[in-house]
Amino acid sequence: MANPPENTSKNWFKYFQYQEGKETPGDARNVLLIIAALIAAVTFQAGVSPPGGVWQEGRGAGKAIYAADKEAFYVFLISNTLALSSSVLIIISLTITFPLRFEILVAMASMIVTYGSAIFAVTPGESARFRYILLTASGPFVVRCLIQMFRKFQTMPAYDKLEKYVSKSMVWMKARIEKYVSKSLV
After folding, report:
1. Which long-range contacts (CB under 8 A, 24 or more apart) does 38-46 make?
2. Residue 114 and residue 15: Cα distance in Å, rounded?
3. Most buried among 37, 59, 60, 137, using CB within 10 Å?
4. Helix 101-122 and helix 70-95: axis angle, to 10°?
């Protein structure tokens, strides 16, 4: 491993940055997978065991103590869910070409369903607000799909778009002319 520069107090941040020419894409993928897996583990655990724990006795047994402050609890739930679903998206994106990709997808889907079940179990009776949690969980996936669609649309040069439109119009016009000519000859 290379020795860090002597004066690290000023450039330590730059020293530890990803450098495209030096590091391999595989190394970068491995680091991202580790980070995403850590985020997924921490957020999953925080959802299953919410901060402050759950009531042990009484009418609210098994429900999150933190849920007494509804606004703060839902900020926690939404932020935690966003972090979990984003890390799951990163894991799926980085492992999509792996040999066991189907098993990874099943495991990720199962983890998200388990997380949702746990959240539902510890949240006191307001299931109507779960639509916000579901929207949050699907948010990173929807945004990624929209970005991909936009990039696909954007990479198609305007000339190609125009050429396709003109080509379709020409085919349509040719068919109309042939139809008109065949009627007039009869």
Report:
1. 39/83, 39/84, 39/86, 39/87, 40/84, 40/87, 40/88, 40/91, 40/111, 43/80, 43/81, 43/83, 43/84, 43/87, 44/84, 44/111, 44/114, 44/115, 46/76, 46/80
2. 40
3. 137
4. 170
Burial of 80 (0-12, 13-18, 19+ CB in 10 A): buried
Q: Write out pLDDT tens, residues 124-183.
A: 876 556 777 888 888 888 888 888 887 777 666 655 666 676 677 777 777 777 776 666
State the Cα–Cα distance between residues 181 and 158, nearest whole angstrom. Answer: 34
User: DSSP per residue over 70-125, as a string?
Assistant: HHHHHHHHHHHHHHHHHHHHHHHHHHTTSTTHHHHHHHHHHHHHHHHHHHHHHS-S
Whole-angstrom distance, CA of residue 13 vs CA of residue 54: 41
Contact at 8 Å (CB) between 77 and 64?
no
How crowded is residue 44: how many other Cβ atoms within 10 Å of its Cβ?
20
The token duo for 92 is: 């799926």
